[in-house]
C-alpha cells in the first residue's frame, strides 16, 4: 500500500509543477505573482491611532443633531442628453475609440512612472523621477487615481493599489499637519468613489478611519472647520477655525461627509457640514454682494462674511460647485441647497459673467462665449475685474448642471458659453493651452437684471481699445491684455466643463474640441516617462517643463478626457455627482431605498 502512495505523490507533484510552468509561461512572471497576491491577499490593517474612539473636547449637542433628510429620494430632472443610435453611430464614433485609447495610454504611462519611481508617495516628479510628498505622504496619487484605474478597466493596477491602501496609516504622516480641504477632496473623495464603484470593503474601512480623523477638524469652539489640521492639536481638541479662511475650504466638505454618512448610517459627518450650510444660508443675503460669499471668510468668529472680493475662481470655486451637487446627492430632499445655488448663480450671472471683446474676421462673426471674472464690492459699488482663471473654467459645467437640475434652460446655455470660452482661450495660445491667469476686455453689459438672450450683448472688435492697454499687448493673442500666470499645471477644469456640456447637450463638435485640447496638452507636457506642468503656454516650439505632475492629472484631467470619448452611460451624470477632484459619488436612487426597506 505504501508503494503506490509514494508514486502518486510524485505524479501529483509533477502535475503541480507542470501547471505552474504553463501558468508562468502564459502569464509571465510578474503577472502570475501579481494576480495571486493582488486578488487574493487584500488585507485591512487599521491605523495606529483610532480617531473614531477619540472623545470630543467640544461635544456636539445631540438633541440638535442634523440628520440626513428622510424619505424616498425624488426622481430628479434628467441631466444627460438622450443619446440616440444616430448620435452614437455618427462619424465621430469611429474616431472615438481610438481617441479613448490614446487617453488611456497617457494614463498608463503616467501611472507606470508613479508606480516605478514614487510608489506610496504623494507624487512623482516627472523629469527627475523622484517621489515627492506634498500631501502628508499617504500616497496622494495612489488614492486619487483609484477610480480612474477602475473606470479604465485597469483592474490589476487597481487591486495592487487597493492592497497598498489597506496598509495606509493615517497616523504616520510626513508632516505635522495636513490641509483638511485637500485631504478631504483627494483622499476621502478618492476612497469613497473607488468604494462606490468597486464595493471593495477595505476602501470604505479606510474612508471611515480618515473621515473620523477629519471629523476632529470640526471639534473647535464654534464647530467651524479648522483647515490647518495639526495632528497633535487635533487629538487634544485644540484646533481653531481660521480668521481668514477661503470659502472653498469651508464649503467643500459637504459632498464627501454626506456620502460617508449615507454609507455608514452615522449622521455625525452630515451634522458637521450642516453647520456650515446653515451659516451659508444665514449670510447669503447680507454680504457685500448678496447671493455670493466673499472669497475669504472669518470662521473664527463663527462665520463673518464681510470681505469685498467675489469670484468663482481660486479659493471659492468648489464652495459654489457643491451646492447643486448636494441637492442631487440628497435625492432632492433638502430644498435649502436649491435656494443657495439659485441665488448664488443669479448674483454670479449679474456681476461676474461677461462677454469678452473678440477679434473677428467680419463684424458679428466672433464666437458666442462668456468668461467669469472677479467682482470687487463694498456693498455700494461693484467693479468687475475681467480676469480669466483656468481654475474658474469649471463654472461652465456648474451652470449647465444646475440648469438641468433646476430646469433653468438659460443656465444650460450660459454653461455652454462659458465652456466654449475656455476652449477658445486654449485655441488662442501657441501651445493650444490657456494660461493659469490672464485678462481680457469685457463688452459693456446690460445691468438691468432682465433675463433674456441679450443679457450679454456683443461688441465689435476695436483694435485701438485693445492697444490702449499698452504696447506690450501685441505680444499676446488678440483679445488678451495681460497674462499674469503663464503656466499650465495639467489642470482639468476646461475639459471638465466640455465633458459635462457634451453629456448634457449631446453636441458632437465638443468631441473635436476635446480632442484638440488633448493633443495640445500631450504635445506640450509629455516627458520621457510621464507628463509635466509647463512654465509658459505662450512658448512656440519646445516648452519648459517644471517637473511637477500633481495627483489631479490622473484623477481628473485624464479621467474627463477618457469619459468624454467613452459611451455616455459610463458614469452617467444621472447616477453620479463628481466631487471637485472628479471622484464620482453614487446618487441614491428611489429603488435603493425600496431595496433597503424590504430587507
Ligand atoms: C511611516 O511611513 C514611512 C514612509 O513614509 C515608513 O517608512 C515607515 O515605516 C512608517 N512607519 C510606521 C511606524 O508605519
Ligand atoms: C475704439 O476705442 C477707442 C479707444 O478706447 C475709442 O476712442 C474709439 O471711440 C473706439 N471706436 C469705436 C468705433 O467704438
From TrEMBL:
Keyword Mitochondrion: no
GO cellular component: endoplasmic reticulum; membrane
Active site per the UniProt annotation: 182 (proton donor), 317, 436 (proton donor), 493
Pathway note: Protein modification; protein glycosylation
SUPFAM superfamilies: Seven-hairpin glycosidases
Cofactor(s) this protein cannot do without: Ca(2+)
Residues the record lists as binding Ca(2+): 580
Gene Ontology biological process terms, A to Z: carbohydrate metabolic process; ERAD pathway
Keyword Ligase on entry: no
Pfam families per the UniProt record, alphabetical: Glyco_hydro_47
Disulfide bonds, paired cysteine numbers: 393-422
InterPro entries for the chain: 6hp_glycosidase-like_sf (IPR012341), Glyco_hydro_47 (IPR001382), Glycosyl_Hydrolase_47 (IPR050749), Seven-hairpin_glycosidases (IPR036026)
Endpoints of the signal sequence: none
One GO molecular-function entry: calcium ion binding
Family label: Belongs to the glycosyl hydrolase 47 family.
Stated name of the protein: alpha-1,2-Mannosidase
Organism per entry: Canariomyces notabilis
Source organism phylogeny: Eukaryota, Fungi, Dikarya, Ascomycota, Pezizomycotina
Amino acid at each position: 500500500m505504501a508503494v503506490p502512495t509514494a508514486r502518486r505523490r510524485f505524479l501529483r507533484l509533477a502535475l503541480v509543477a507542470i501547471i505552474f510552468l504553463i501558468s508562468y509561461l502564459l502569464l509571465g512572471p510578474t503577472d502570475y505573482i501579481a494576480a495571486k497576491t493582488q486578488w487574493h491577499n487584500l488585507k485591512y490593517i487599521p491605523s495606529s491611532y483610532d480617531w473614531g474612539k477619540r472623545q470630543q473636547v467640544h461635544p456636539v449637542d445631540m438633541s440638535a443633531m442634523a440628520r440626513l433628510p428622510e424619505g424616498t429620494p425624488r426622481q430628479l430632472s434628467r441631466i444627460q442628453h438622450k443619446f440616440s443610435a444616430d448620435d452614437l453611430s455618427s462619424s465621430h464614433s469611429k474616431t472615438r475609440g481610438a481617441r479613448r485609447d490614446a487617453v488611456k495610454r497617457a494614463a498608463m504611462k503616467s501611472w507606470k512612472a508613479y508606480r516605478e519611481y514614487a510608489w506610496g508617495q504623494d507624487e512623482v516628479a516627472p523629469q527627475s523621477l523622484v517621489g515627492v510628498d506634498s500631501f502628508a505622504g499617504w500616497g496622494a496619487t495612489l488614492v486619487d487615481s483609484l477610480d480612474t484605474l477602475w473606470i479604465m478597466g485597469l483592474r490589476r493596477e487597481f487591486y495592487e493599489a487597493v492592497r497598498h491602501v489597506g496598509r495606509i496609516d493615517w497616523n504616520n504622516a510626513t508632516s505635522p499637519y495636513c490641509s483638511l480641504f485637500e485631504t478631504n477632496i483627494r483622499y476621502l473623495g478618492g476612497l469613497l468613489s473607488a468604494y462606490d464603484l468597486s464595493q471593495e470593503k477595505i476602501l470604505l474601512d479606510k474612508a471611515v478611519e480618515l473621515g473620523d480623523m477629519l471629523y476632529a477638524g470640526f471639534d473647535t469652539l464654534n464647530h467651524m472647520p479648522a483647515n490647518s489640521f495639526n495632528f497633535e492639536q487635533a487629538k487634544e481638541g485644540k484646533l481653531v477655525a481660521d480668521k481668514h479662511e477661503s470659502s472653498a475650504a469651508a464649503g467643500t466638505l459637504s459632498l464627501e461627509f454626506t456620502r460617508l454618512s449615507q454609507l455608514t448610517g452615522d449622521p455625525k459627518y452630515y451634522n458637521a457640514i450642516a453647520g456650515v450650510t446653515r451659516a451659508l444660508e444665514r449670510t447669503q443675503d447680507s454680504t457685500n454682494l448678496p447671493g455670493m460669499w466673499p472669497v475669504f471668510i472669518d470662521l473664527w468668529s463663527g462665520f463673518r462674511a464681510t470681505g469685498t472680493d467675489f469670484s468663482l475662481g481660486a479659493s471659492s470655486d468648489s464652495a459654489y460647485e457643491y451646492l447643486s451637487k448636494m441637492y442631487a446627492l440628497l435625492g432632492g430632499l433638502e430644498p435649502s441647497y436649491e435656494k443657495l445655488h439659485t441665488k448664488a448663480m443669479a448674483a454670479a450671472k449679474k456681476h461676474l459673467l461677461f462677454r469678452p471683446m473678440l477679434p473677428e474676421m467680419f463684424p458679428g462673426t466672433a464666437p458666442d462665449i462668456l468668461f467669469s471674472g472677479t467682482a470687487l464690492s463694498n456693498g455700494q459699488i461693484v467693479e468687475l475685474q475681467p480676469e480669466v482663471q483656468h481654475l474658474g473654467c469649471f463654472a461652465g459645467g456648474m451652470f449647465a448642471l444646475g440648469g438641468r437640475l433646476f430646469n433653468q434652460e438659460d443656465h444650460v446655455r450660459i454653461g455652454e458659453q462659458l465652456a466654449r470660452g475656455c476652449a477658445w482661450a486654449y485655441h488662442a495660445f501657441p501651445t493650444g493651452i490657456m494660461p493659469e491667469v490672464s485678462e481680457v476686455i469685457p463688452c459693456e453689459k446690460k445691468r438691468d437684471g432682465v433675463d433674456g438672450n441679450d443679457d450679454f450683448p456683443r461688441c465689435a472688435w476695436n483694435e485701438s481699445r485693445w492697444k490702449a492697454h499698452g504696447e506690450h499687448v501685441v505680444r499676446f493673442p488678440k483679445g488678451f491684455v495681460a497674462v499674469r500666470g503663464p503656466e499650465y499645471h495639467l489642470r482639468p477644469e476646461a475639459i471638465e466643463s466640455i465633458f459635462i456640456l457634451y453629456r448634457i447637450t449631446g453636441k458632437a463638435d465638443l468631441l473635436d474640441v476635446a480632442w484638440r485640447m488633448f493633443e495640445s496638452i500631450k504635445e506640450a507636457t509629455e516627458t520621457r516617462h510621464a507628463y509635466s506642468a509647463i512654465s509658459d503656454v505662450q512658448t512656440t516650439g519646445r516648452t519648459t517643463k517644471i517637473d511637477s505632475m500633481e495627483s489631479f492629472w490622473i484623477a481628473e484631467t485624464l479621467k474627463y478626457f477618457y469619459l468624454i470619448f467613452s459611451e455616455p452611460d459610463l458614469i452617467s451624470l444621472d447616477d453620479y455627482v463628481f466631487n471637485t477632484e472628479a471622484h464620482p459619488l453614487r446618487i441614491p436612487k428611489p429603488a435603493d431605498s425600496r431595496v433597503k426597506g424590504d430587507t
